[in-house]
């Protein structure tokens, strides 16, 4: 939560009394994305106190909202610096802002610009927000941007997996393959994996990635021990990749805030049961072998 910009009014270039006012959140990446797209533009950037949260999430939470916008306008003395009464807000902030109420309370008219900051220059030049500018994109490139973030989050675990992979034959490479597959293939294949819930998509991908290893183990014949081990692997690794899928819920336009909460409370208990069951079956297979049961 350290990625915060101090809320307030910022000058971009040399703004005049007729310059436009763009509104954003005090999340560093939101602020930087906006100003980096406006090189050579003289404007004001009004930064709301969203507690370091991006525009879309803050609009749902209520921190990018009517009260905060009016407070920022009045607190910065914006009306005294301008000859016009026009504010340009990002479209994804519309859920938290009542335009008519802002106009009534502080006299400023709210206009909603593009979804993405890199479309703002063309919007300002043409004076029109096209359908494409208003569309939330989540194509392959947008999805794959998430993978390095997740990779960074699990970097210590991956280091342990790599060390383990060098020491433990078969299961070391298997764990590395499943983890990297979950991190990179999940966002890449997201639209084509079955189901609407990201956790289910992750579980399906986990089962698919486990299948080649299971088939290799069963290639020399299927006995009780092999069947038990394969079942343990499917339960354990499907729950693991399902958990990776659950992590993507807050990074996609596929679900809402309430949808994320619902998915967490619905699927975390089954994933825990699957992981515990898979571990127990694996231990049982090892102990059974030691005891001569297989």
End-to-end separation? 53 Å
* Helix proportion range: 55-70%
Mean pLDDT: 90
| Number of helices, where a helix is a run of at least 4 consecutive DSSP H or I residues | 13
**Element string (H = helix, E = strand):** EEHEHHHEHEHHHHHHHH
Question: What about the largest sheet?
Answer: 3 strands, mixed
Name the overall outline: elongated
Strand residue content: 5-15%
Describe this structure in words.
There is one protein chain. With 294 residues, the chain is mainly alpha-helical. It folds into two domains: 8-126, 3-Layer(aba) Sandwich (Rossmann fold); 140-290, no CATH class. The protein is 57% helix and 9% strand. It is built from 13 helices and five strands. The protein has helices at residues 28-36, 55-61, 66-75, 78-81, 99-106, 120-126, 140-144, 146-153, 155-167, 171-189, 198-218, 224-247, 257-290; strands spanning 8-12, 20-25, 43-48, 86-89, 109-112. The strands form two sheets. A three-stranded mixed β-sheet has the order 1-3-2, sandwiched between helices. A two-stranded parallel ribbon has the order 4-5. Strand 2, helix 1 and strand 3 form a beta-alpha-beta unit. The longest helix is centred in the C-terminal third of the chain and has 34 residues, at 257-290. The protein starts with 7 loop residues before the first strand and ends with a helix.
Topology:
Layout (H helix, E strand, L loop, with lengths): L7 E5 L7 E6 L2 H9 L6 E6 L6 H7 L4 H10 L2 H4 L4 E4 L9 H8 L2 E4 L7 H7 L13 H5 L1 H8 L1 H13 L3 H19 L8 H21 L5 H24 L9 H34 L4
Parallel strand pairs: 2-3, 4-5
Antiparallel strand pairs: 1-3
Helix pairs in contact: 3-5, 8-10, 9-10, 10-11, 10-12, 11-12, 12-13
């Amino acid at each position: 939560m350290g990625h915060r910009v101090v809320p307030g009014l910022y000058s971009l270039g040399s703004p005049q009394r007729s310059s436009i006012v763009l509104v954003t959140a005090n999340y560093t990446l939101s602020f930087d994305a906006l100003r980096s797209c406006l090189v050579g533009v003289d404007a004001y950037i009004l930064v709301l106190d969203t507690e370091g949260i991006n525009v879309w999430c803050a609009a749902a939470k209520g921190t990018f909202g009517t009260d905060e916008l009016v407070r920022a306008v009045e607190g910065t003395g914006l009306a005294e610096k301008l000859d016009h009464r026009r504010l340009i807000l990002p479209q994804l902030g519309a859920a938290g802002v009542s335009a008519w109420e802002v106009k009534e309370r502080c006299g400023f008219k709210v206009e909603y610009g593009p979804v993405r900051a890199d479309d703002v220059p063309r919007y300002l030049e043409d004076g029109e927000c096209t359908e494409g500018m208003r569309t939330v994109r989540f194509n392959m490139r947008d999805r794959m941007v998430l993978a390095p973030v997740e990779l960074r989050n699990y970097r210590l675990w991956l280091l342990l997996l790599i060390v383990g992979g060098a020491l433990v034959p078969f299961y070391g490479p298997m764990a590395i393959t499943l983890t990297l597959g979950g991190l990179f293939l999940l966002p890449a294949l997201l639209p084509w994996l079955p189901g609407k819930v990201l956790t289910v998509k992750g579980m399906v991908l986990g089962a698919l990635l486990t299948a080649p290893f299971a088939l290799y183990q069963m290639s020399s014949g299927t006995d009780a021990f092999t069947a038990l081990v394969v079942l343990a692997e499917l339960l354990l690794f499907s729950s693991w990749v399902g958990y990776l899928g659950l992590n993507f819920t807050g990074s996609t336009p596929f679900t809402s805030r309430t949808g994320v909460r619902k998915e967490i409370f619905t699927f975390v208990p089954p994933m825990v049961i699957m992981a515990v069951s898979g571990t127990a079956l694996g231990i049982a297979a090892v102990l059974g072998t030691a005891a001569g049961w297989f």
